[in-house]
Design brief:
The protein has 226 residues and is mainly α. The chain is built from eight helices and two strands; from the N terminus they run ααααββαααα. It has a single domain, classed as dinb family like domain (Four Helix Bundle (Hemerythrin (Met), subunit A)), CATH 1.20.120. Strands 1-2 form a two-stranded antiparallel ribbon. β1 and β2 form a beta hairpin.
Length: 226
């Protein structure tokens, strides 16, 4: 991972999501997203679960050494519609629907996300924690959380075109992750900005014929992350 202060990137990533959803009414929280079957409130609940997991992980020290880093962590999440992913998608949607109103998810997010950031800020970045059956350095854990938050921030914008995009520091972390999932020799097409890169690297947008021509054999690697 780069020398980016990972707690600062996570703070920016989570504040970015809050900027999108914080003032939405119950109607707008039921707008569609780029995630199949998920409304804004459903997707926010999924990211909320990540913030809760961050709190647990940061209070779950491990002796080390790490078995994955900020890039190799993602190799277990292969693209495609597996049964586990479909079950989680359905569970998240039903869980979000259990709130009295969609704005209830926003209130819980607004309490939980800052707490996760505070825990990340005081954690030793060189320490080790455990989450999802893996041991990671704290800095790498925070990078994975920022990467997921940035990608889902972009997912939220599908039907909210006037909402603010992810911030530059958090976006840089997500881009660095995608670069790590590519081969060292691969170069992304020059015409892609960072957000287009992230959307195409995660299969949110299809590769065009020109993209495939510029990528060559590397096009077969896409999507890099599901």
């Amino acid at each position: 991972m780069t020398s980016i202060p990972q707690h600062e990137a996570l703070a920016e990533a989570y504040q970015g999501i809050t900027a999108v959803v914080g003032d939405l009414d119950d109607h707008d929280l039921q707008r569609p997203t780029r995630c199949r079957g998920w409304l804004v409130a459903d997707l926010l609940f999924h990211v909320l679960c990540d913030a809760q997991r961050a709190l647990v992980a940061l209070a779950s020290p491990a002796a080390g050494p790490p078995d994955v880093d900020d890039v190799t962590y993602w190799r277990a999440f292969t693209p495609g519609g597996d049964d586990d992913g479909a079950r989680h998608a359905w569970w998240a949607r039903r869980s979000a629907a259990a709130f009295d109103r969609p704005s209830g998810v926003v209130r819980l997010w607004s309490d939980t996300a800052p707490a996760a950031v505070r825990a990340a800020t005081v954690a030793d970045p060189s320490g080790h924690v455990t989450t999802q059956g893996h041991v990671l350095r704290v800095s790498d854990l925070l990078a994975t959380l920022s990467t997921e938050a940035v990608i889902h921030h972009l997912d939220l914008l599908l039907d909210l075109p006037d909402a603010p995009p992810p911030g530059p520091l958090a976006t840089r972390v997500a881009v660095t992750t995608m670069d790590g999932l590519l081969s060292d020799e691969a170069v992304r097409p020059a015409g892609w900005d960072d957000h287009e890169y992230l959307l195409k690297a995660t299969g949110r947008l299809p590769l065009s014929d020109r993209d495939r021509l510029e990528l060559g054999e590397v096009a077969g690697w896409f999507p890099l992350l599901g």
